[in-house]
Amino acid sequence: MSRFFANSYEYESGSSSSEEDLLSASEEELMSSSSSDNEDLQESQDEESDDSFFDESASESDVDSDDSDGRPYGPDWFKKPEFRKGGATGANRFLKNADYSDSESDDEGKKVVKSAKDKLLDEMRSVHDKIDVAEMTQDFVTVLSELDTMTRLVTRAQQQNYGIPNVFIQVLAQVEDAVAATSQQDITNKAAARAYNTTKQRVRKIARDYEEIIAKYREFPEAFSTEPTEDGAAAQDNFAVSSFALAGKKAADLSSIATATSESDFFTALRIVIDSRGKKGTDHQAQIKTLEELLDIAKSPYETILAYINLISFRFDSSATLSYQPIDQWKASQRDIAKLFDILEAHVGQYHVSEFASRNDFIEDEPQTNEQGVKEILGSVYSFVERLDDEFNKSLLNTDPHSSDFLDRLKDEQSVYNLILRSQLYLEATTTVQADLQKRLARVLIRRLDHIYYKSSKLVAITESKAWRSLRQDSKSEVTPLGEEVNEAYVFKLIDTLHQMLCNQKDGSQRKRAALYQIYFYALNNEFEKAKEMLLSSHVQSSINYSDPPLQILFNRAVVQLGLAAFKLCLIDDCHQILNEVSTSTHLRDILGQQSLQRVANNNAFSNTSVPNEQLCLPFHQHINLDLIDVVFMTCSLLIEVPHMAAFFSGIKVKRIPYSQKSIRRALEHYDKSSFQGPPETLRDRVLYAAKAMQRGDWEVSVSYLNSIPTWSMLPNTEEMLANLTQRVQVESLRTYIFTYKRFYSKLSVEKLCEMFGLASEKVVEVVTTIITDFDMRAALDEGSKYVVFEKGFEITKLEEVAVKLAKETKYVSERLNEKKYVGNTRRQE
User: Fold this and answer.
1) DSSP secondary structure string, 624-653?
2) Is the pTM of this model over 0.70?
């Protein structure tokens, strides 16, 4: 489209100077025509207010499309439609002091097209106005909601490289003042009080990242104003916070230097880039572009290494204020790190990048060679890989786990693991002192374990095979050598080797983390006895309450996985004992690290606020299914507590089992009190109905309810596990039947019991003998073991059973009443 028919246009760089001369000349002629015209034009100019995201753009903003202020703009302004209209609303509009009411009425129906940046600013101003209103009424619920909205808008602005608007700084300072001026005792509404506490913590956390800017705002609030000043100058909506502050002339200078071919110009441009890092208003995108151009003109490996080290650092710096690094930037960083490894591996005998190298103040001069004839460059290759892995985890945490984007993102995990293995081999090749090797490899080995401990041995074998195939053919490792075949034995040996290497470290947290990784892996791969022995021998549980929250989360995950391993082997008693404390927690999702980032920010189960929120969460593919934990625990409770309850109510003295909210006993009590019982709907209902069938001695119905639970498909060897579970249900149904109905029989036929419960006669005799021995029951087997003979006179009647239940309920109610009285007396004393 021609620029003459566009609503507005910007000058081209090549003709800007000549057009400015024409414009200034035309303005002088027009402004000299009448003094009254000057006054009107000045008044219309004073009414303009140009909000912008950049300091430099306050006077260079886009031209308003309607030209309603009457100011002639550009050398071709006379060709605009307003000029061709004629009359007071046409050409005379620009020359005469006329009434503009007609032209304004013509333009009222025109649609104003705003840029995405202006729309974002309008939304922020709207949020600012809502907070103003809510602050006057102490409506902290609205203040908290609008503060979250403002935070999301600022994140959007940063992702689009708009910078940070002044209105955001104003809102932060305003909310800080509102929180400081309000006392929680003055708030009577409970919801507002909770929102006040959350707002206080939230704004303190956010303002910590903008302390310097807020301090400047409090010192010079006029510089942040979005309203026009007294002299009519347009207000600016940014105070040296823009990520494009290094645009324009500096960027052009760097580009011209980067395209030079001499060695001195390469290091000159590189020095300018290095000196600008960390300074306020640095344009990271311009610096990245400059470093990419420097890579093209680099002549020696030393220049290429320096360029890559700084380029990777600037890529990470450009997304430091974002929730995670954009995927395209992340992939670019991954490619740069891989290319850096290529250069270092190709010249491993000449250059080493090491954290322990001496600082070189003159980058033009290559470092001096050491005793091995190698030049050491200050830097850390593994820190780049570590940061890349952290950004990968952040992107997974910020992606919807139920979308295809999450699966696409998860495919990049293999490339991250390849770089971790590559960094380990590089450290082995460049570390000459063997005493320092284990210390330098500790971080790498922990990160390597972190990517494989939660996977089955088959998946780990696939991951290892792909990682080794991505390396050079002559690559080898002395610490974790590659075997002839990557199979299950190699994987278990790898886990043990990594654990042994980390156990020699002085850092206690690394030793504990390595031990928990090993325990989790062994439990996941059906090595219950070994995992249990490792947990008891490590003594981690004795000091876990004083460890960091991430370590506590890992410990809880290892314990849960150990319980699931016991259930896979049908070790019901061990599984119930292990899962009893963890599964009954009211914050199970939190203590397993399976909550969202938003939930961590709002309601943190761990009081240590110094730990980043990302370390308290795990990506979705590492989660342990909570429904599986719940069903496994209730099934174990079913097989243990139903026979126990039958024995207790039949008058047999039994040991007390810990009572929990999620136990089957609690579910059965609630079921008996309910007035209506419908068909099973949830997973817990199926286990509950299985328990009711077991109480009646109908083991087939009980097994059918348990087999209908779809969650079992998440466990390996499901058919074998269900077969073992069925056999255990048969045995426990037999025990429950004997405890419940022994009062009605003088003797029971073993053959009939075998027919009823589908068990062999030897198994029935074994179960009956165990019951008689363990519970001291007044019964015995006859000589041929064909009948179970019960002694009469020791069984309680049905009335006595009801009395026992009533006495139990009475004791429970009296304990609750005493507890309420104690709490009431304590409150009155206070």
Assistant:
1) PPHHHHHHHHHHHHHHHHHHHHHHHHTT--
2) no
